[in-house]
Design brief:
Layout (H helix, E strand, L loop, with lengths): L6 H6 L4 H12 L10 E7 L2 E7 L8 E6 L2 E6 L20 E6 L4 E9 L2 E8 L17 E4 L2 E4 L1
Antiparallel strand pairs: 1-2, 2-7, 3-4, 4-5, 6-7, 8-9
């Protein structure tokens, strides 16, 4: 397996260490990423997203959705069946799992709902006003800006 050295990236940039860490984490993962439970990620609007996880066999009490800094952690723990059952075929997996989804900056979870064997997690990206593009007024060559104030030259 190839390994990449990101130290030149750390020396040449400021504030991109999180992106380099994420790239490093993706490149060092082994090829056997867990596929259970299956999930979808969809874009529902310009700044809205939905993660849908197949959770057949789990109740709302068995499921947990938690936002930790820049990731969403979905986990399920199921208590042992109180009654003994004899299965002729068991195709619905109800084993415990923990699934992590990395979030981009300014993305937060707005809600989660479990229905029809699916867990839907709604996300929204809320960019702060200070980071949104703003129009800068272009003045004439006779004025000079000093610390946010316009002063005649």
């Amino acid at each position: 397996m190839r390994t990449y050295d990101f130290s030149p990236l750390y020396r040449a940039t400021v504030g991109f260490d999180r992106m380099a860490d994420m790239l490093d984490r993706v490149l060092t993962q082994d090829g056997s990423t867990p596929t259970y439970p299956p999930y979808n990620i969809e874009k529902t609007a310009d700044d809205a997203y939905r993660i849908s996880v197949a959770v057949a066999g789990f109740t709302e009490a068995d499921l947990s959705v938690e936002q930790r800094e820049q990731e969403v952690v979905v986990s399920a723990r199921r208590e042992k069946d109180e009654e003994k059952r004899t299965y002729l075929h068991r195709g619905i997996a109800t084993r415990a799992f923990e699934k992590r989804f990395q979030l981009a900056d300014h993305v937060r979870v707005t809600g989660a709902v479990a229905e029809n064997g699916m867990l839907h997690i709604d996300l929204v990206r809320e960019v702060p006003e200070a980071l949104k593009p703003r129009q800068i007024e272009i003045g004439s060559g006779t004025a000079k800006a000093i610390e946010g104030e316009t002063v005649d030259a």
